[in-house]
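Handout, page 2. Input:
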Amino acid sequence: MALLALFRRSARASTKLRTFAKPSATSFGFQPMSQRRSVSLQSYIVTPKQLAGALTKNVPTKISTSPRIIPLCAAWFLPNDPDGRTGQQVFRECRIPSARFFDIDQVKDHDSKYPHMLPTVEGFSEAMQKLGIRKDDTVVVYDTKELGIFSAPRVGWTLKVFGHPNVHILNNFRLWVEEGYPTESGDVEAAVERDSHYPVPTVDPYMVVKFAEMKEIAKDYGKEGAEGIQVLDARSLGRWKGTEPEPRPGLPSGHMPGSISVPVSELLSPKAKTLLPGDELAKLFESKGIDPDKPIISSCGTGVTAAVIDAALNEANWGRSDNRRLYDGSWT
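Output:
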């Protein structure tokens, strides 16, 4: 029987800057210095208005060493995307000014045969230095306007696993664009001055479930005296049932014994694809019989959208944070 473990990216554009009419928030940095003040973001999930206000009030200068607010694009599409889109492509087409791009297909464990396993501590540190991110920066991760909330929570979760202290998720980039906040396009220059020192971090192992532990949990499901660990699956209901194919050739669909289907689509608003309000998420989790007093493990196809469930649990305040974990690698 499995033992219960303790549960715990300014980019410069080479092309035009597109701005839209929006009071105050459309012109980051055009306030007199006397009117600027540092603004911190309080909640893990932040709105476009909150981020725009914070960026307006926290304008970095070349001589400043103060912590900055860094928009970090985590755009990613499934390998079977019908339009063949890539994260890099949509990042070049439309992004928040000064954003950096976190490539989850590159910042990973390159020694693993699985797609999105966490990188080594050295690999994570190197990636953050190349992005010009410092340990004391506030990082706001966001997705694509095409998909809404999708892969940003995975990058946010990754930063938290490696101990980055101030991490937030934008809810979401589609609304940022629709509400008229500024965007830019074109290639991003590789600015040497961006490079920063980022210390090699320490991993929080309690946030991550590995294969051996997950295998034991699955074996113990339904046995007398089992620990009652709840496994939530973010894939579509069809993939969970085994009636729809997986996006990766040769990988069968289906689900782990005892897992609960919580498709990402159910956690998002139908049109804007924003994460639902906390009270609505709580009702959803309750309707699926998810007990907030028992341990929860989030899973999906490769560990990307599992983090959407984790973010939703956090927003709903459903279960203790030290009782919620993510299965890295997931169904793959």
